[in-house]
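note to self — DONT lose this again. spent like an hour looking for the file last time. sequence + predicted structure for the chain T wanted, 205 res
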Amino acid sequence: MSEFNIIVASEEHIRYVDEILETIAVAAKARGTGIAKRDPEYVKKKMREGKAIIAMRGDEFVGFCYIESWGHEMFVANSGLIVKNEYRGHGLAKKIKHKAFELSRKKWPNAKIFGLTSTLAVMKINTELGYKPVTFSELTDDPSFWKGCQGCINYDVLTRNNFTKCICTGMLFDPAKDTNEVSGKLSDVQKKSAWERLKNFISGK
């Protein structure tokens, strides 16, 4: 297996957008979970602005993630994380997520970084980066962000609960509370403890 190159996407990677979105859609269908549909032009814009991470193996796209700021740059979200099925098991999702986290911190050092996910693997990666599970009330109230959920099959769950909860778990990294023990620097014991707290949060314990 040749090495993977995980970089900030640019104009030259726009040709992969359709394949990226198809990979995201197929993965969501296979998991049986909801996922907001992405507009191809929106994803292309992220690449042009240097707000996306792409993993390549030679000339082949193998993974992707993009970032966006909300609420007057007070919040940043990492979205659309995907790794091609045949390349899973190589730790690519974690590497892409770490790269997106670094890019987010570089572009918006004072912003809170958050995400919505129904995937346990992503929750675990977020936990290792220093994210904590939170209620939706602690996330951005920017209507443009929540409008993006309209393409998800679970949008009715979100609206029935007046945007307070859904199938996804909300997770947040707050730089104001950052210490040397977070931002991906947790010890193995701390990671295990944080992961146990997250699982208890999800199960309502």
